[in-house]
Amino acid sequence: MISINQLTVDFGGFRLFENITYNINEKDRLGLAGKNGAGKSTMLKIIAGLQLPTSGNVSIPKSYKIGYLPQHMKHENTRTVFEEAEQGLKELKTMQAQVEKMNEELASRTDYESEDYMEFLQELTDKTERLSMMGGGNYQAEIEKTLMGLGFERKDFDRNTGEFSGGWRMRIELAKILLSRPDIFLLDEPTNHLDIESIQWLEDFLKTYSGAVVVISHDRAFLDNVTNRTIEIVLGHIYDYKANYTKYLELRQERFEQQMAAYKNQQKMIEDTEKFIERFRYKATKSVQVQSRIKQLDKLDRIEVDDFDTSALNIKFPPAPHSGAISVKGKAVSKSYGDLLVLDNVDFEIPRGEKVAFVGRNGEGKTTMARMIMRELDHKGEITLGHNIKIGYFAQNQADLLDPNDTVFDTVDRVAVGDIRTKLRDLLGAFMFSGEDIDKKVAVLSGGEKTRLAMVRLLLTPVNLLILDEPTNHLDIRTKEILKQAIKDFDGTAIIVSHDREFLDGLATRVLEFRNKKIKEHLGGIYEFLEDRRIESLNELNAVQGKKTPAPKAEQKTEQKPVEKAESKLSFEQQKELARKKNKLEKQLKAAEEAIESLETQIAELEEKMANCTSSEALAMTTQYMTVKEELDKQMKIWEEVGEQLAEL
Question: Is 0.85 surpassed by the pTM of this model?
């Protein structure tokens, strides 16, 4: 058990913690909660022994082993992935060497009856048992299992760690900690660089782990699945809940309501007492009572209401400009990087208004597809954008495109139009830019702050197709909820590349799974996707769950074949008739779109001429203008009707 005793931490003139006391028990699954800047990461550093408190102490058993994963770390590039992961087994390898040496010594000893021999034999037995518990001579298989669980492939094992991005380097560090089998895990945002498969693998690992876990995360589903206790840090104090994150939110709301009731009652009592003092301060007959009331106020323990953010800020994307019935369509799309084939002859179609999730392991082509839709990458096959499509794109490197010389406020003020301009400060506040933060230069912002600022800019731009690549990595839970609601209310189309199940739940209406160089369609949301496949984690997609419920042979065969869509149950003639109707409607839709584009150009030209001519000339052109306008309305109606028929097909 770890004991945190009377912990106080000061930063300059600011007190982060004050006299905090609590225990971490042997099998606790504890989540740290609180606003950004509340001190969650500092708390982990102090427990890990990397930072000293101003006063108080952390009591840790002598032989206790701590595994700490920070958000940011320095990396070395001198080893392969396998060799670096192997560093997590230093204790095991040391013990293995000791056991081998002791076995050699045992073979040469002949003092079988001596007390020293019996003590030596007992020590060897203890070390052998401890070695067996840690994995023993099978540690190489354990390394493989851990690395593959975190998304690596066997071909990656011999690659130098310097060849990998920061996110993959973080996975290697996580593998080292998992392999070291500490008594307690201290994990600071472990899911930031993991895909859904790896997150669920980590969940399963932590849920069955014999030691304690303390985790900071903005992934609500991860917290709910892993933790059974939540400690909230508020205004330098803590509140301890024996509950996971979702239940903690309910209990916190109850506490807040109780605090508010007590606070209002106390404020009423203080107001009445002060009125009494003011009224009778100068009356001799009441002097004793007045002094008593003054002392009462001096001794009063004032109730503080916790700094909860109870505002209900609703953020909306600007209305989506009119677009075609199909937002984006791909046919026979393939993409290679040199000899590495990422996508092979895939078809897909995303109708207007759909919210589609791209899921799959890292490296399976999700971001590649997003960039191909954006025309940022060359490819084979066709990717066609619908009529009048305007794309809003949020990429991992979006923050790098901001002007470093602009302030935070200037960055959003330059793109804001309409009524939203009056709410820019509220919008920035929702994304954790408040007070003096809005006057900071972009150049001094952290990577996470730049990412959040880029997201705010996206909320201000009128588009009808949103492409969001891992938009939640640097957002806290409340901000993610605001963004999620904004996307749900958005009347355009959205493609979301994300590993955050809670964010996708209730948002995505269709899932496109990237796997084995193909795309497979799944109707419904992210959890329906999991249920339909009768699995609990995405890393079981190619395997049957359990030996007790084997899938039929035909189904197993289907699973292995990368099918684009489920086989049609229509007859050949029905399929032929359906294709004929679809082809006819597509031609009508294309003709309407071309007509609309031509008519809109004519109207723009007429408006320009009418604005720069005499009144009599303008009057003469009015009839022509109204005729073109009526024809545009007619074509728009045809376009909408045909689009709806095509969507039904």
Answer: no
